[in-house]
Amino acid sequence: MDDEDFFTEYGEASRYKILEVIGKGSYGVVASAVDRHSGQRVAIKKMDNVFENISSAIRILWEIKLLRLLKHPDIVEIKHIMLPPCQREFKDIYVVFELMESDLDEVIEINHDLTPGHCQFFLYQLLRALKYIHSANVFHRDLKPKNILANADCKLKICDFGLARASFDDAPSAIFWTDYVATRWYRAPELCGSFFSKYTPAIDIWSIGCIFAEMLTGEPLFPGKNVKHQLDLMTDLLGTPSAECISRIRNEEARTYLNSMGRKPSITLSEKFPRADPVALRLLQRLLAFDSMERPSAKEALADPYFHGLANLADEPSMKPISKFEFEFDSKKLTKDDVRELIYREILEYHPEMLREYVCDAGKTSFMYPSGLDGFKHQFADLEENNRRVERSTCGAERRTLLYRKYASLPRERVCAANEEEEAEETDRNSHKKENAASVVRATILSPPRSPNGKEMEDARRKSIIMQNNRCNTVYKGHRIVKSASMNMFAVCYGSKTRK
């Protein structure tokens, strides 16, 4: 084995060149980078001192394990995890993801005039991903616009599986919700104030309903300040739930509050969303049923007339339920070293040679080897220090923008506005547009085959993207496209040309 092959396997960190910080949070830092071997851009998530908090480390373990097992074009993909220099002592983790340009939160915030076509396509992708996730008996449990990544070609991918869990039986499972307000806004009513509950797929369906409503209006549907305020907002729109429905809420304080509440009539969604498609609102009504037993499954939602001509249930992928043996650790009390060993074993899934050695030696490898992470840490450190210096010398919005990706939303070409001189022509086209749009979009976003194995699904996804880039420009050909500098590098989805 020559030097290049050796360091590809053991020192792969040297193959990535860090470009810029695109996100920060309690988890660590995310930077965009270039793979020097392939030339592709990726996102690298750096997590420092992972094992200082065992609960956080276990959350990371769940996420990287689930993302290895769940392979779907609407779920973010882990491309690689850096090999640490020492099995017994490593503290940091570097995970390489496919690079996405933005997230749905920023898309909704900046693009206030998303078209019905955008909303339908976005919801379709989210439900298609949920159908796959739920077929594996996995619940995401923290769906919100920030946890949905977006690209300029209107592609969405669900991410952040740290709170996701697999269901193996009917026993309740515990979850410690973060106290971020944004998380509360998308939380199902049966979970309000509850930290210990039996989870069903309906909790994710409620979150998707809230996200869909936010797409339609550009504003969060239930921005509650606390549990009681959250319940007030829900009942203001949906009316007071039945006594039977209230009895299924586990939190005693929430039950008491609802029982003491005066009767409220529901508001018709057409009053709340006067400009929305009535067919879309009928589906939204189902997704936002206060009673979890009345919400549709993701599969049932995909069969709704709203997706007529777009979804084909026979082609939407599913997978077998995840084996309980993959998560045996969850029933045990784990030490810091236990979690480190489990994460190390998961990292080796991305290093086949080392995995074979590890299995043969029964996991007893403890020597140091050249991982290349030291140099990689310096790249991150230099980048973060430069950002801090710039932050100290700037202020306001300019300072905040430096920490995030340049393409904060879908480029404006994705949001189509009718040109005044084309309005008359547009009226004549309207009668044909709906049928044409449905057939074209259906043809361009065909689901991959049922097999969850990588090669077949990736081939189907690649063909789908190529077809989409080649054909979907005919859907909105008559619209005026607002120009954006960022569009030169991306294929146009909801517009065919840019006028000078």
Automatic annotation (TrEMBL):
InterPro entries: Kinase-like_dom_sf, MAPK, Prot_kinase_dom, Protein_kinase_ATP_BS. This is mitogen-activated protein kinase. Its EC number is 2.7.11.24. ATP binds at K46. GO terms for molecular function: ATP binding; MAP kinase activity. It catalyses: L-threonyl-[protein] + ATP = O-phospho-L-threonyl-[protein] + ADP + H(+); L-seryl-[protein] + ATP = O-phospho-L-seryl-[protein] + ADP + H(+). It comes from the Eukaryota. Belongs to the protein kinase superfamily. CMGC Ser/Thr protein kinase family. MAP kinase subfamily. Residues 16-307 form the Protein kinase domain. Keywords: ATP-binding, Kinase, Nucleotide-binding, Phosphoprotein, Serine/threonine-protein kinase, Transferase. Pfam families: Pkinase. It is an enzyme of class 2 (transferase).
